[in-house]
Each structure stands twice: as structure tokens, then as C-alpha cells.
Automatic annotation (TrEMBL):
This is Ribosomal large subunit pseudouridine synthase B. The gene is rluB. The keyword Translocase does not apply. Residues 99-187 are annotated as: Disordered. One of its GO terms (biological process) is RNA processing. Keywords: Isomerase. One of its GO terms (molecular function) is RNA binding. Coiled coil: none annotated. The keyword Ribosomal protein does not apply. Residues 107-119, 126-143, 152-162 have a biased composition (Basic and acidic residues). It comes from Afipia felis (Cat scratch disease bacillus). SUPFAM superfamilies: Pseudouridine synthase.
Length: 187
């Protein structure tokens, strides 16, 4: 793989009847059988990077998105979202696109709403606040110490443990299919 081959992608390329627009590709480094390439695409068609690289004779093992449009992703963890400030968004879009969008960039960003308040003005507690988490240490089968977090009342836990040990009231039968019934007549 050479930079000259990648430079040909600036004019666009057609692969299997699909036309891809201009692609800025830069050869970063060549490590044995691996080639690191930086791709800047504008269309984002389905599997565009993989198809174009296959056209050049390379198989893509991993794709790492480093930016989305003019916005660098930096250290944002996978699956997380970060809000772009209005001023930065307006600067990146440019004055023409910002006015065409009709968005109010001067309007303050919506702040997170505070805690919900009851009729008497006191903050409401969530169900999670009602549960008390108790931490303790127990030993597993191999004698290792393990930290355990338990929630719920001691009374309920004792009742569940008693039922598990065979003590306590009998449980109601579970609903659902329990296998084929014996239909032979009883004498």
C-alpha cells in the first residue's frame, strides 16, 4: 500500500457499481502485515470504508472513529454522550448554515431539572433511597473473603432463607407447563 494509491481516492471511486465520493486517506504507518490508514469520508454509505479498502486489496480488521464532522471525539467513552455548547456549535457550522437552521444559539442550554418537590415543598425521595444497602463480608466455598451488598429488610431475608432451608409455609405451586400429565386411569 502506498500513499499514491490512497491519493487516487480524492477523485472518488466506483466499487461494484456503487460510486463513492471524495475520500481523504493518509497512510499513517506500516507495521508488518498491518497498515494504519486515516480515512476522512463525507457520505458514510453502508460499509464504505471496508468496501473501498477491499477494492485496494486490504482487509479491514478494526475501525476507530476519531471524529464526527468537525467534532473530535477525544476521550468520550463508548456509548456516552456529551453536549456541544451553543457557541462552539455555531462556530463549527458557520454563519450561513447557522442562520439557515433557524436555531436560537443565544438561548441558554437547558439545565438539568432539580429534584422533584412534593406538595408541601419538600423533595420527594426515590424508591432507591428507601432501600438500605447493607454491606458485609462472607466466605465462599474455597474460603476466600467476599464483600456482599444486600438490600431489603432482615425480616424478609430471614423468611426467604427459612423457605430455602425447608422451613416456613409451603410455597404455592408455580403456574405454567410442568410436563405431560399421566392420563392412565387410577384404580
Amino acid at each position: 500500500m502506498t500513499q499514491a494509491q490512497l491519493d487516487e481516492l480524492k477523485n472518488g471511486v466506483e466499487v461494484d457499481g456503487i460510486k463513492y465520493g471524495s475520500i481523504d486517506a493518509t497512510l499513517e504507518r506500516d507495521q508488518g502485515a498491518n497498515v494504519w490508514v486515516t480515512f476522512a469520508i463525507r457520505e458514510g454509505k453502508n460499509r464504505e470504508v471496508r468496501n473501498v479498502m477491499a477494492h485496494l486489496g486490504l482487509e479491514v480488521n478494526r475501525l476507530i472513529r476519531v471524529s464526527y464532522g468537525p467534532f473530535q471525539l477525544g476521550e468520550i467513552p463508548e456509548g456516552q454522550v456529551e453536549e456541544i455548547k451553543s457557541r462552539v456549535l455555531r462556530e463549527q457550522l458557520g454563519e450561513k448554515i447557522a442562520t439557515m437552521s433557524g436555531a436560537q444559539f443565544d438561548k441558554p442550554v437547558r439545565e438539568d431539572e432539580g429534584p422533584k418537590v412534593g406538595r408541601d415543598g419538600t423533595p420527594l425521595r426515590s424508591k432507591a433511597d428507601n432501600k438500605k444497602i447493607k454491606r458485609s463480608k462472607i466466605e465462599d466455598r474455597k474460603g476466600r473473603t467476599v464483600v456482599v451488598q444486600r438490600s431489603g429488610s432482615d425480616e424478609k431475608r430471614a423468611r426467604n432463607e427459612a423457605e430455602a432451608n425447608g422451613y416456613g409455609p409451603p410455597r404455592k405451586p408455580k403456574r405454567g407447563y410442568h410436563g405431560k400429565r399421566d392420563l392412565t386411569p387410577k384404580d
